[in-house]
Amino acid sequence: MTADEETGARLVSEMADRLKANPNDVEALLKQCEAHFKMSDYRSSREAAERGTAACEALAKKFRMWERKCDTHLQEKAASAAPAAKQAEVTEVKEVSEVKEAKGAQPAASAQPADAAPAAAAAPQPVGPSKLPDVRRDWIQTASDVTVCFYINMKQQIAGSKDHATVSFTPRSLSVSIRLKDGTDYSYTAEPLFGSIVADASSYTVRPMKVEVVLRKYAHGEHWQKLEGTREYADKVAAYPTSNKKKIDWTRESVAEEGEDAKPEGNDALNKLFQDIYTKADEDTRRAMNKSFVESSGTVLSTNWTEVGVKKVDGQPPAGMEEKSWSQ
Question: What local confidence, expressed as pLDDT, does residue 83 receive?
Fold first, then answer.
């Protein structure tokens, strides 16, 4: 046993004791995952990474990275074992052929009479259902993009050309079709997506074992809770950016339908003005309002996309106040 393996075995034992006391100890799961990996126990390492992904959403991206590393090594291990299995199959076929030849060399007296009943035909082997393509899907997001990855099993890897994958975008949907080397097709459709995207700014790349799709978010800074939305969510109208906790459906004909009989005043009147601008604005104006409001921490609301679209919008706190980051 090498020094790394001894260290790994000791660390696995220590982390196992910690996980008995607290099964959701994220630090212990991460160290256990790394230790198993150093010991080349990729299956146990992946199991620890899966538990970590489920236990801590904040570190899910890191645990998924370990899952992918383990998958790569497991696939390489399976590929290296394939030639040995093929050789064993060839040897077995050769032995069967030799036995058949030996039986064919027996004396003619032992041959079956001409009027004997013909031997029963070999029963056909049952044909099972065709195996679906082994493709794993994963996704991550930033403030501006959502990246969706499709990982292909090494035995079914694609050629790496864009001709072998078709990806189409609409503002609320994604459709992916992948032709694998064994002739099978993998298809995935998300309609509607959780949020709107800019189809023209979205892209994809094709590699031998992965298809990566980058979706450009329509609303910069919007957090997607999941990749696919519900139809109810997709049909909702966009809400203009506001810090007001009271949610009002501005598509109603009058505020009275929301329980407001009086004309809005103060902040409500200002919010009403902003919602009128947002509802009647074009896409660039809405993008400008969303981007400026988010990047300035709610202190700037611009409608000029030409100006705010090319740079970060700095905060402009009211006179006598100072802007500070969350860490201060």
Answer: 63
Q: Are strands 210-216 and 135-141 parallel, antiparallel or unpaired?
A: unpaired
H and E: helices and strands count for the chain: 8, 7
Measured CA to CA, the distance from residue 160 to residue 176 in angstroms comes to: 15
| Beta-strand runs (E) in 114-202 | 135-141, 145-152, 165-170, 173-179, 185-190
Report long-range pairs for 174-179 (Cβ below 8 Å, ≥24 apart). Answer: 174/148, 174/213, 174/215, 176/148, 176/150, 176/211, 176/213, 178/133, 178/135, 178/150, 178/152, 178/211
Reported as a single tens digit per residue, the pLDDT across 178-194 is 888 777 888 899 989 99
Calculate the alpha carbon distances from 154 to 75, 138, 192 in Å. Answer: 6, 17, 31
| Predicted pLDDT at 104 | 54
Dist. CA 177–CA 135, nearest whole Å: 12
Pick from 268, 263, 203, 217: nearest CA to 242? 268
Judge residue 95's burial from the number of C-beta atoms within 10 Å of its C-beta, 0-12 exposed, 13-18 middle, 19 or more buried. Answer: exposed
